[in-house]
Automatic annotation (TrEMBL), chains A, B:
Function per UniProt: Catalyzes the removal of elemental sulfur atoms from cysteine to produce alanine. Seems to participate in the biosynthesis of the nitrogenase metalloclusters by providing the inorganic sulfur required for the Fe-S core formation.
Domain of life: Bacteria
Family membership noted in the UniProt record: Belongs to the class-V pyridoxal-phosphate-dependent aminotransferase family. NifS/IscS subfamily.
Stretches assigned to the Aminotransferase class V domain: 6-368
Keyword Metal-binding applies: yes
Key word Iron-sulfur present: yes
EC number: 2.8.1.7
Protein name (Swiss-Prot/TrEMBL): cysteine desulfurase
Cofactor: pyridoxal 5'-phosphate
GO molecular function annotations of the record: cysteine desulfurase activity; iron-sulfur cluster binding; metal ion binding
InterPro entries documented for this protein: Aminotrans_V_dom (IPR000192), Aminotrans_V_PyrdxlP_BS (IPR020578), Cysteine_dSase (IPR016454), PyrdxlP-dep_Trfase (IPR015424), PyrdxlP-dep_Trfase_major (IPR015421), PyrdxlP-dep_Trfase_small (IPR015422)
Organism: Sphaerochaeta globosa (strain ATCC BAA-1886 / DSM 22777 / Buddy)
Amino acid sequence: MEQHSIYLDNNATTAMHEDVIAAVHQANMLYGNASSMHMAGRQAALAIEESREALASLIDAEPSWIVFTSGASEANNTVFNIFKERIDLGSKRNRIITTTIEHPSIIETVKYMKQLGCKVDECPVDSTGLVDMEAMKNLLGDDVALVSVMLGNNETGTIQPVGEITELAHQVGAYVHTDATQAIGKIPVSMKELGVDYLSLSAHKFYGPKGIGALVVKTKAPYAPLVHGGHQEGGKRAGTYNTASIVGLGVAAKIALRDQPSECEKLWKLREMLRVGILERISNVVVNGNQEHCLPGTLDVSFPHAEGESILLYLDMEGIMVSTGSACASGSLEPSYVLLASGVDIELAHGSIRFSFGRYNTEEDVAYVLEKLPPIIKRLREMSTR
Amino acid sequence: MEQHSIYLDNNATTAMHEDVIAAVHQANMLYGNASSMHMAGRQAALAIEESREALASLIDAEPSWIVFTSGASEANNTVFNIFKERIDLGSKRNRIITTTIEHPSIIETVKYMKQLGCKVDECPVDSTGLVDMEAMKNLLGDDVALVSVMLGNNETGTIQPVGEITELAHQVGAYVHTDATQAIGKIPVSMKELGVDYLSLSAHKFYGPKGIGALVVKTKAPYAPLVHGGHQEGGKRAGTYNTASIVGLGVAAKIALRDQPSECEKLWKLREMLRVGILERISNVVVNGNQEHCLPGTLDVSFPHAEGESILLYLDMEGIMVSTGSACASGSLEPSYVLLASGVDIELAHGSIRFSFGRYNTEEDVAYVLEKLPPIIKRLREMSTR
Amino acid sequence: MTNFMSQWVYTPVVKDHFMNPRNTLKENEQFEADGIGDVGSLACGDQMQVMIKVKDDKIADLRWLTYGCASAIASTSMMSEMALGLTLDEAYHLTPAMITEALGGLPEHKFHCSVLGDKALRAAIDDYLEKQGRENPFKKHVAKVICECKSVTDVQIEDL
Ligand SMILES: Cc1ncc(COP(=O)(O)O)c(C=O)c1O
Ligand SMILES: Cc1ncc(COP(=O)(O)O)c(C=O)c1O
Ligand code: FES
Ligand code: FES
């Protein structure tokens, strides 16, 4: 029935790689509890340790730093909870710095912590979504416990100078976390080079399974579990090992390590084709985010006088899947807080469309979008109050 | 090479049912983000809602009560965190009651909360592991916020009178949580009949995938997320929907609902065959836990003068997989806290072996164990200090 | 999973000694020990007894019994092979590290298991010297022999 199915929502989640699907299917036979000493348990434990090493290679970290979690949301919550606890226990470093454009799993956690009286400063960003480094320097001080800045933004793709920020933060003795969820597999990510103490990621953003991710924690960085219980993950995260998904994450990590350079090139090419094509065919268009420091596959565009949800649904009718603002906000009436934080006009912040490319997209996909999108925008603009 | 592979560690985790494996494999194609409005997202969302209904039917709850989590550990942590937060915010009901034999995901959470100054009472159990109802009555009072009592114990299989406890707790205005993780699929579990306000479960205990479970929360019971972020699960638990695993949980729930009565009968028969066989063949054996109120597939036995890990590993050499005490304690020197809490002698608490049956076990398995176990015990006892 | 035997929790040497422990006291065996050492207790989850025969100040023969885990069984079995024929002096200075090395390693949290057999051996030598009414030239060098399952640290093990 559907003739086209063009998935341009890869920043929300990706389709699993066929090798990952096969590996997960196989690993579903490794049913033993990886904490058990018997054969079934040991087989599962071995498979898990192999994945730990694969992930460590991908992000240039030590295998022992990796704590598998149910995803990046849990990983981000865990980091903030570590410092919430330390502050609650009376640590003199009692301030946290983050930014205005983090993922909801940080934004909402910060809201919650502030309600409880925690001191959190949100560093502003410039009009392209880049962290305002002057503001950051002014915010830093020896009362800062944690600085958390995402690596690549899920909505605009803007890449932050996390290495630089880390240096500054370490100078005042603060620990640094980066949410690298969107960057993994798209750009090179070296935890050692970035110098960060904590890093979050989620497998389903790089063709792995959903419901599995990791918090990567340097050995000397403070830690406290969010999920207390059994001794899994060295006592850092309780819960029976999710063997099959961890295996899937490991295979996805191996593929990402192998393919990242070529993927990066390909994604950027498709993204640029679409950007140039849209600007050629549609007038009055605003491309959001920083166009220099940008994740290769992300293109976020505002179409004044055309409402985001309507564009999304008309595109969907044509078999083109995109998202408005951040996927998490879908179904809500909120304008994109990421764009608002970058000083984008509220009307533009309401009507942004995110095209996010993945490994299965082709130039034909771009051509198809460039055929279908202009009449949709035209139609909506004609319908629109002027 | 391995001739026998007899898995008797089903309380630790079960092998996925083949229908579950097939459904998960299929659902891995439902890659869309279930929060997204486009086609791929809606397909995933539909599959998730079907699972929610299947789980609701299994435990006689409303679909809207279900919050999918990464497992029972997270679900248990979430419940305790809800009340920790309320108490922190100054609630007059500032005491929690639980028992001495809960799963580590509660025991450790309680330890942590006590360190932070929270008032938690652990109700004692009798020599069969049943909650001491007199002690419970004495502990209850109008300062109690939450009573948390597990339904079936993972180690001894002892089943608690949760319905009765709930009535008493509700009389003093406390909320009630039960960790039903071990009971699901083995005995009938009706959340409405039990009357509890919160219930935890994990899919991998009833032939579903690992890394997925649920906290089931009545509409009017207090709630606060453990993982803050996106609007998933009605804002109750952030993180991209783990579609495939949720689908697997749903299929496992359907199978459990269908097969629970016959499974219960079968598991009890195998367990009794083994219990009687051991008592006939091996002298000086102690069967732990309550033999009347007991999960059908669980048999926990202490063999004085034979050490648990050694028994486990000798059995493993014969292809028989069991666990000592709770799986979480494996590799540690701790005696079983569950048995110690039941007043079992410390030496017996050190050397207990848990045989836990599942749907793939047969009478031949029992016969094989009854052939291999006695010489192992004999050998270890000969080697043992006398 | 073709090669599951190599995936055993412990090393192949540990496995061999666990499956075929050497020099255990057989059920009806008469063993006239010159010295007996007991350490640990059932309550701790590990208990160890070492019996020695001494000839010309050498360990002429040795038997042991344990209520202990696989690591305890394997390390005591290994210890018993290493100790046979040693002078009392040499035997007294066998260390858990030497035993562990001979086993090809033990997991960190199982290190203390190798201490048990070793301590029991020293206790047996102490017992022998005491029964002989001889002065004990070794004892002052080491901590007293008690069950320390839960408190033995790597540092202490290094010290021994
Ligand atoms: C930047 C960023 N951080 C965190 C997350 C959360 O990941 P998950 O939903 O897998 O927990 C996402 C995606 O949803 C993301 O894009
Ligand atoms: C009674 C009980 N509660 C909770 C859990 C935790 O489940 P999970 O490890 O899936 O989080 C388990 C099993 O490990 C259990 O047996
Ligand atoms: S008119 Fe429908 S969301 Fe505002
Ligand atoms: S002897 Fe105590 S655990 Fe090995």
